[in-house]
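Appendix B, Record 12. Input sequence as logged:
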Amino acid sequence: MNTRVCKRCDNEKDITEFYKHKKSLEGRRRVCIQCYTETCKTYEARTIGDRQCKLCGVTKTITDFSKDPGNPEGRKVWCKECLKKKTTYYRNKDNHTKETYRLKNREAYKKYSTENRGKIQARWALRKSRKLRAVPKWADLNKIKEVYQECRRLTEETGIKYHVDHIIPLVNPIVSGLHVLENLRIIPATENLKKNNSYEIN
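Logged structural output:
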């Protein structure tokens, strides 16, 4: 006699006690007909009828509650309408908090950016260089920051825009420099833009 064990009740039953199932390798479901029927009845009980929302207290049909596989009853305890209101409330509250913080600190950030432009430029250059793995462990980051601050000071005092140039470019077809103090120099922006990433080997 051909038999198999039900995965639900763990009882060994005749193969005819299992519904046919084309997608199964053995051509039968893994649970017996009895267990499968009980499962269907339980699901039907969870999806038919009315229930009371735990938030608004109104009794509504089961379709007014979103499905929730983690809940034994298969539905959320809040109705869809209450859930939507709560979600909208917290979303608007979060956006309002971010907007308030941004507006409150806009002037402070603007002032900091103006007074510390050199630090910010040094930070971005460091970030770019780290991406290129061009900052060795022995690099003096404080001295590098001073170079960018000096570059900013010259620009403000002379009215001529200056750039901090890498003498040996970080990216070049034949050579790659490092983001270190010895490889930095302050030159006019026009000269730096003209140079681009070229490098002449003497």
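The domain at 1-48 is CATH 3.30.60 (Wheat Germ Agglutinin (Isolectin 2); domain 1).
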